[in-house]
Amino acid sequence: MLEHGGRLQQAAITYGIALPDWLDLSTGISPFAWPVPEIPAQAWHRLPEDDDGLVDVAQAYYHAPQLLPVAGSQAAIQALPSLRGPSRVGVIAPGYNEHAHAWRRAGHEVTCLSAWSLLERADELDVIVLIHPNNPGGERFQREALLACHARLRARGGWLIVDEAFMDVSPDDSLCPFTARDGLVVLRSVGKFFGLAGIRAGFVCTSRPLLDALRDYLGPWTLSGPTRHVLKLALADRDWQAQARGWLRHGSARLAEVLLMHAVTPTAGCAFFHWWRHELAPSWHHALAERGILTRLFDEPRSLRFGLPADEAGLLRLDQALASVRLMGMT
Amino acid sequence: MLEHGGRLQQAAITYGIALPDWLDLSTGISPFAWPVPEIPAQAWHRLPEDDDGLVDVAQAYYHAPQLLPVAGSQAAIQALPSLRGPSRVGVIAPGYNEHAHAWRRAGHEVTCLSAWSLLERADELDVIVLIHPNNPGGERFQREALLACHARLRARGGWLIVDEAFMDVSPDDSLCPFTARDGLVVLRSVGKFFGLAGIRAGFVCTSRPLLDALRDYLGPWTLSGPTRHVLKLALADRDWQAQARGWLRHGSARLAEVLLMHAVTPTAGCAFFHWWRHELAPSWHHALAERGILTRLFDEPRSLRFGLPADEAGLLRLDQALASVRLMGMT
Questions:
Q1: Is B1 a residue whose pLDDT tops 50?
Q2: Residue B100 sits in the same domain as residue B141
Q3: Given an 8 Å threshold on Cβ–Cβ distance, is B200 in contact with A220?
Q4: Would the CB atoms of B200 and A223 count as touching at under 8 Å?
């Protein structure tokens, strides 16, 4: 298993800074969380039921003709490679590394390629796994280019898998509405946009036969009662969703401004984070951590990802820390 | 996938009785639920962390040298058959049918045997799956007999898997303390004893190598933040646990009294349910359902399982319904 999480706790130990004193920008999760109301006792007491209305609400939110609730897109990432025979699989790089890991573990032949190489080499591959918008690379794709790529794969029984974990701010770019087509699989995550990383819930949108195979593979009761209750309310809360899109766009623009002021020019980004590719990324990561600001460091390629501060106070703190790091001559 | 749940909703339609008017005795889940307090917002907002203290609390509660939290024992039931090569597997019958289903699906050779045949034929099998106490059969085993059976299997690289979903009222019979031994796997479920069927949480207790393989197979974040929060509190609440054992023992004894009064003599049972094997089980099931009382009907062998009513009012209602059914001459 790849190691995740615990980074903040590890940083607290490494840098001798208490947990509450950190500005944690190391995740791509929205700092604007949907306000979870009290959970009715029945949600804890009774077995979750498939026909509780969650699927209808989710289909409306994602504009998907059919879908399956799963325990985080992680559950789908792990299950999908078991649902087809040995395949040549192209996975976007740099990207969320659980994808390549899961396909390799299931015995497939995995090649990691840049976004553009992947689309060009569709005819040499059986399965293509994209992240859209990409994390951390930030690449975006034209809907038509993706549908054309899918059509080429589908003609040979292949799959196009698109991980849309960060798509909620730009829903018009989603491929969910097209997932009645065989071989098109879209993964959606609830935690990022709704700021609920602890909920561990996501949805798989794909055509009925694969959806049924996945449902059979994952078994009953993949989500807890309280999770289903919260999902139904959050996915239906259109007013909050519209506000949150505004907050994220504004927060992302403000973050870019602050980074630019200090010549930390984002290589790419989306509404949830900015990504900065730079040879000195490890030194910047270290210097910011010494100042109680945790970013996410990537080794290959050397880069930093900055999540959104929750407010102006957080932005000011980042601003001052970046200024102080630059004074050290690190540019 | 085997179909579960939805039985109460189906019965409401079949018998034209509104959902709130049912006395639902169709599950083995305790009607005495641990009182879930308010969930802190952080449990929803942050990614769950493995080192949040849950494992320590659970090890103390189960007296297990090591364990892995899983999304219900269902998750472990599905995963374990993937973690060994083709095997001859003996599964207790009648029992919870997800076990045999999962082993068959993974391509193993599955034989369903009575509790006693299983132990006798240990030398012809690679894996034995028991439920202790059995559901619905109610069979109980001597700890020494199980440990001897495990030793025979282990000598040939085999496994003894014991599903202890209903063990919490008789913790001294648990094999959890012995699970440092290779090839001994104990599954524990939180939902039954704590009355939290919606929580979808359980634990696997086994030796480190298999535990690591299972952790790798299931991937990160198998439980939501709120579920981990509730588990930590409930598993540490010794006063409530002692009370709940008393409530379940008393409730089970009262249920047996009421059943006996009407010549519905339990074939077996435990603190969570009573089981009645009878050729006329389908007719009784139907007649009770007409009176708004849902029991669990098994076809093979023909039998009824009665879960515990939550209070004396529920017992009285069952009492009156049984009397009325007997008046129909159905004995």
A1: no
A2: yes
A3: no
A4: yes
